[in-house]
Design brief:
It is a single chain. With 349 residues, this protein is α/β, with parallel strands linked by helices. The protein has 2 domains: 9-110, 2-Layer Sandwich (Enolase-like, domain 1); 128-336, TIM Barrel, CATH 3.20.20.120. It has 12 helices and 12 strands. The strands form 2 sheets. Strands 4, 5, 6, 7, 8, 9, 10, 11 and 12 form a 9-stranded mixed beta sheet that branches. Strands 1-2-3 form a 3-stranded antiparallel beta sheet, with helices on both faces. Helix 7 links the parallel strand 6 and strand 7 (209-211). The protein is globular and about 60 Å long. The relative contact order is 0.17. The model has no long low-confidence stretch (mean pLDDT 94).
């Protein structure tokens, strides 16, 4: 909890980050990311947060997000309470506020953000996380080069062509062998028949899972897929804590994938974990929103603080940006917690 007597100065910094090349998804191509950095100044201490909703994919509408950021109170406790009040309607804005406050508090304490968050929860953080690599295209040779460099888990986006997607899965498995994890993201654009067809065509591949095959709102239909042995991960369906609570009651929902800031930041992640594990253990993965170094840093520190080291997280997407705001987090498929206070540095604007 922030110091109630501290005064805050907030600055909203708009940033546009072009991608090196368009990222093809079943919902259309993504060419650039428009986001807002949030800089907090508390005396001599800075803190950084990020809000990067992505229309059509997740988070609040950008105009709503920016309006929420423009109303942050100038006193720390009030700002914290304000973030809690808007978290259900403006999760990205709430995450940015909470993140900037936490980053500043960690820097004031001289601790890495993960250790600061863990200490506040009486937890022991992990110091190393595995990461998955998002492939721009399901190119077996490119994946093999990454595998040789130490990457072990790979994800790619559905083309919308089920036959082509299954062929890509078979080619990746044949090239990488049995030790590579493979994940395919459909972005909610498949039908139940598509799922069954893909399961038939890729039966020997043994994917980790298909991420969000059906559109949000069609979760009941996913129960049918247990008969065709297609493991499903939920992503866009988990758009808030109420949705997490509902999904947690379904036996077939084995894998939960969260966009950290679209959930609302660290308090929302903790609450979501309690809900997700309330009935039986779930596999939990944090995934990038194609955010900048600031946003990915917050997600990584949050995962480390809560000891989420069982799965490879989808937070290695800096290579997709033509220009990022900090050094790449990924070192041959891993992220290592450093010793620097807060996020470990400032964004390179």
């Amino acid at each position: 909890m922030p110091n109630a007597s501290a005064d805050c100065r907030w600055e909203i910094i708009p940033v546009e980050l072009p991608l090196r090349q368009p990222l093809r998804t079943a919902k259309g191509d993504i060419h650039h990311r428009q986001l807002w950095l949030l800089r907090l100044q508390r005396g001599e201490i800075q803190g950084w947060g990020e809000a990067s909703p992505l229309p059509g994919f997740g988070g609040e509408a950008p105009k709503l997000c920016l309006a929420a950021l423009g109303k942050i109170p100038g006193q720390a406790r009030s700002a914290y309470d304000y973030a809690s009040a808007i978290a259900s309607t403006c999760p990205a804005a709430a995450s940015a506020i909470r993140g900037a406050l936490a980053d500043a508090s960690a820097r004031a304490a001289g601790l890495p953000l993960a250790r600061h968050l863990a200490a506040a929860c009486a937890l022991r953080p992990c110091t190393r996380l595995r990461l998955s690599l998002l492939l721009e295209q399901p190119d077996p040779e490119a994946a093999l080069s990454a595998f040789a460099a130490g990457w072990r888990v790979f994800k790619w986006k559905s083309s919308g062509d089920i036959v082509a997607d299954a062929a890509a899965a078979r080619a990746l498995r044949a090239t990488l062998g049995p030790d590579a994890g493979l994940r395919l993201d459909a972005n909610g654009r498949w039908s139940v028949d598509d799922c069954r067809r893909f399961a038939e065509l890729s039966a020997e591949v043994q994917l980790d899972w298909v991420e969000q095959p059906l559109a949000p709102g069609k979760e009941a239909d996913l129960a049918e897929l247990t008969s065709c042995k297609l493991r499903v991960a939920l992503d866009e369906s988990l758009h808030g804590l109420d949705a997490v609570s509902s999904a947690a009651q379904q036996y077939w929902a084995e894998v939960f994938i969260w966009k950290y800031q679209w959930l609302g930041g660290f308090p929302a992640l903790r609450a979501g974990l309690r809900l997700a594990q309330g009935h039986h253990p779930r596999r939990v993965v944090l995934s990038s929103t194609l955010d900048s170094w600031v946003g990915r840093s917050h997600a990584l520190h949050a995962a480390a603080a809560l000891g989420l080291d069982a799965e490879a997280h989808g937070l290695a997407t800096g290579h997709l940006l033509a220009k990022d705001l900090g050094p790449d987090h990924a070192l041959n498929g891993h992220w290592q917690l450093g010793d620097g206070p807060g996020l470990g540095g400032d964004p390179q604007l």
